[in-house]
Amino acid sequence: MVEVFKTNITTTEHADWLIYQIHHHFPDYKANFDLTDCDRILRIKNVSGSIESDFLISFLERFRCRAEVLSDESESVLSGINLLLNQVS
């Protein structure tokens, strides 16, 4: 399963540190950030099941990260915009 979150993370250092924390505390989760996206996307993939979004959001708040789940519709729009931007550049 994959879950996509809008975040307030602005630096690669903070993003990298959060990825380390996520991987350390949630070994089945694979995380990555897209800080170039206007919503500073955090993508989480659980290789062995579902993602506990509310628990993860609470966990991230301990590290000064605000996160909210993006709906599938929002992610589709964002993916389309990113695809168009990549074609233009």
For the largest beta-sheet, the strand count, sense and barrel status come to: 4 strands, antiparallel
Spatial order of strands in the largest sheet: 2-3-1-4
Beta content: 15-25%
Q: Helices and strands: which structural class?
A: alpha+beta
Shape field: globular
Which residues form runs of ≥5 with pLDDT under 50? none
Mean pLDDT: 88
Share in helix:
40-55%
Distance between the termini: 31 Å
The string of secondary-structure elements, in order, is: EHEEHEH
What does this structure look like?
This protein is of the alpha+beta class. Helices cover 45% and strands 24% of the residues. The protein has three helices and four strands, in the order βαββαβα. It has helices spanning 12-25, 53-61, 72-88; strands at 2-7, 29-34, 41-46, 67-69. Strands 2-3-1-4 form a four-stranded antiparallel beta sheet. A hairpin with a 6-residue loop joins β2 (29-34) and β3 (41-46). The radius of gyration is 13 Å and the shape is globular. The N and C termini lie far apart (31 Å). The mean pLDDT is 88.
Layout of SSEs?
Layout: E1 2-7, H1 12-25, E2 29-34, E3 41-46, H2 53-61, E4 67-69, H3 72-88
Antiparallel strand pairs: 1-3, 1-4, 2-3
Q: What attributes characterize this protein structure?
A:
four-stranded antiparallel sheet, 45% helix, alpha+beta, 89 residues, 3 helices
